[in-house]
Amino acid sequence: MMRLLSVGVLALGPISAEANGCYWTKVVVENNVKTVHKGFRDPLKRRGCRWNHDSGLRPPEAYALEVAILERLNEPRNASQCTGRYFPRLLRRHDNNLSFVQSYDGTNLLESPSTAQCSLSNEDLTRFATCAEALLEAAHVVHYDLKAKNTVISGDQLTAIDFDLATLDGRPSLTDLSDRRYRTRTRTAYGPALREARAARCALERRSAVLRDREVRGPTHVSARLRQRREAVEAARGRQRDFRRDQSQRLAAARRQSKPPDDPS
């Protein structure tokens, strides 16, 4: 039986809830610090939520597996040139209602501000993906759903989350997974997936910057032919103004010459 950690009473701030299949997650502010609460007991008690349709695990089994994985990943583990933290910290667990509390590590790469991702290079993303997979392998954890949506960013810090579809020490086995898409998956193209998400977000950011610049300063990209046409039109207008000015000056001089002199008597 898993142990239940005793926790003190915390002051809770505003709560935002997000549906996650038959499970639920909440971002809770505790003493001005955000945390993530995740529960495996469907509050609506829907018949279809008696097991996870992807993993095939029932809620108590899915809860026990994810908590055990987080505890394993929170243990100090050495990996070559991999420093820092790559996974959420398990803060508290509540076995009686199948819920736990983990650290809040930012928003996922598909929803986070594009400026945060564009500040990272492709080498940064590749290094993170390589280290995360190396640490998972060292902990005997296989994450079958590593992707941009399950990677969050805060500042320049990335974190891999969501261990609904994962195995610990080979359990549950691949044949136990309900969703056939995950039975043949052993390792994912994690690095390329992160780089693809970054490229898409940065391209959107660049396009937005161009549109904002056009709104402020007007069109900046004018073709050479169009520019030549505009210059020719302006030159023709200048010559026309000069011709009209010279013509008016000639007419005025002609009128002065044709006017008879005043009679002195």
Give structural notes:
This protein is of the alpha+beta class. It is built from 5 helices and 10 strands. The strands form 3 sheets. Strands 1-2-3-5-4 form a 5-stranded antiparallel β-sheet, with helices on one face. Strand 4 (90-94) and strand 5 form a beta hairpin. Helix 3 packs antiparallel against helix 4 (190-217). The chain is rod-shaped and about 120 Å long.
What tags apply to this protein structure?
disordered N terminus; Protein kinase domain-containing protein; 3-stranded antiparallel β-sheet; 10 strands; 265 residues; alpha+beta
Question: How are the secondary structure elements laid out?
Answer:
Elements: E1 12-20, E2 23-30, E3 33-39, H1 59-73, E4 90-94, E5 99-103, E6 107-108, H2 114-118, H3 122-138, E7 141-143, E8 151-154, E9 157-160, E10 166-168, H4 190-217, H5 224-258
Antiparallel strand pairs: 1-2, 2-3, 3-5, 4-5, 6-8, 7-10, 8-9
Helix pairs in contact: 3-4
Short structural summary:
The protein has 265 residues and is α+β, with helices and mostly antiparallel strands. The chain contains 5 helices and 10 strands.
Number of helices: 5
Order of helices and strands: EEEHEEEHHEEEEHH
Helix fraction by DSSP (H/I, runs of at least 4): 25-40%
Counting DSSP E segments of at least 2 residues, the number of strands comes to: 10
Distance between the termini: 135 Å
In spatial order, strands of the major sheet run 1-2-3-5-4
Spans with pLDDT under 50 lasting ≥5 residues? 1-20
- The proportion of residues in beta strands is 15-25%
Look at the structure and give the mean pLDDT.
80
Biggest sheet statistics: 5 strands, antiparallel
Rg (CA only): 34 Å
Write down the overall geometry: rod-shaped
Structural class: alpha+beta
Region (Disordered): 228-265
Protein name: Protein kinase domain-containing protein
Signal peptide: 1-19
InterPro entries: Kinase-like_dom_sf
